[in-house]
Amino acid sequence: MKYISTRGGMSPLPFSDVLLEGLAPDGGLAVPERLPQISADMLEAWRGLPYAELAFRVLLLFVKDIPAEDLRKMTYAAYNSEVFGSEDIVPLRPLDDELSLLGLSEGPTLAFKDIAMQFLGQVFEYVLAQRGARLNVLGATSGDTGSAAEYALRGKRGVQVFMLSPQGRMSSFQRAQMYSLQDANIHNIAVRGVFDDCQDIVKTLAGDLAFKAAYNLGAVNSINWARIAAQVVYYFHGWLRATKAPGEQVSFAVPSGNFGNILAGHIARSMGLPVRRLVLATNENNVLEEFFRTGIYRPRAAAQTYATSSPSMDISRASNFERFIFDLVNRDPARVRELWAALARDGQFDLSGELPNFSARYGFVAGTSSHADRLATIRATYERSGILIDPHTADGVKVARAFVEPGIPMLVLETALPAKFSDTIEEALGKPAPLPPGMEDLAQRPQRVETMECDAQLVRDYIARHAGDAA
Ligand SMILES: *Cc1c(COP(=O)(O)O)cnc(C)c1O
Description:
By secondary structure, the chain is an alpha/beta fold. The chain is globular and about 60 Å long.
């Protein structure tokens, strides 16, 4: 199993090499040369496996350059009750007679990104040790990604993390979660600016090739292939928990932003998992819903991206989308290059000729949700079932309802816990979300953060001073 670029300009590389890269050298994204196929017998043999073992079996199909026993150690170190609070790792709970919740947010930062990041932390440390290399991870976050990366990489040998966040723009919970980490290899930098300013600084420094090479800068952003591979696992897990017999179909509803989560569902389905529908839910930032409705992909400018109450889905362009388009055009890299050239030239591309395939061939359907929908859904869910859901999950629940079919379980992916977005819970219910056990004192813990003016040079100097710190 080797990896190629969606734009055709990269000679095939093994897993460990694409792990440490961001974009492919030709500007495309790494994808498997061909997808492994799962038979019904294999699936049946996986019933009842603990999550860590299932993760090992699935990831082994994608990772051929690491000895199997080492890979198994990593999945068991990533997915256990110490990290995820219980043996379930990803619990499946019925919400009502139509929907169930697939609980992806039991990890240390209460959002689904923990699942992929915990594996990434293990495999980064392993590969760096093998190569005697060090890595300086530089990132920008508006909340969930940065904290998940920090909790996964804290104390890892050979890795320093430099995470930029916009000063005063995250929720107090998110701030407390990140800034209370005291590990020597975690560096929180609060920039006097907005998220886009932080992102610009990252782009400036990562674009300075001499600096990037001298300090071995790396990224853990949503295009990282290892994150996608780790996310494929929970679609298998959800299917295995929701079905009893071979061939039974399940639908998944996915609150979406950068198209990383639902792309993993598309991959699982393409591997032969009996998935009926992949229901893509967006908030008011409906670039992806528009695509699945019209066939036209039209990313928005930052200024046209709304700040909503499901902020982790506030995206203007979906960074993983190219991987799906690659499949949609029958894995023709020349077509992908053409489409992305059109995007650069015209600000959009048109695949409306493929519209019938979206659902019939790939199972994709889509819908949107608004602030009022989120509030109403949080309230109705709580009143009906006593279960409190977060605003992102509420977008998923709202959109899922429209696509429920008799006899086919609909699993809504719970992408965060409500405590993380308590302001909106309070707006919906008149009371805040309870803090999970062990986190009651989070706001009181001492915080460690460096505040800086919005200036790439200051960040560059800071990295130069701290890149060698022992982890
Ligand atoms: C990141 C995130 C999303 C969006 O996931 P994508 O993989 O970017 O589509 C949805 N909900 C929450 C809570 C998130 O943190």
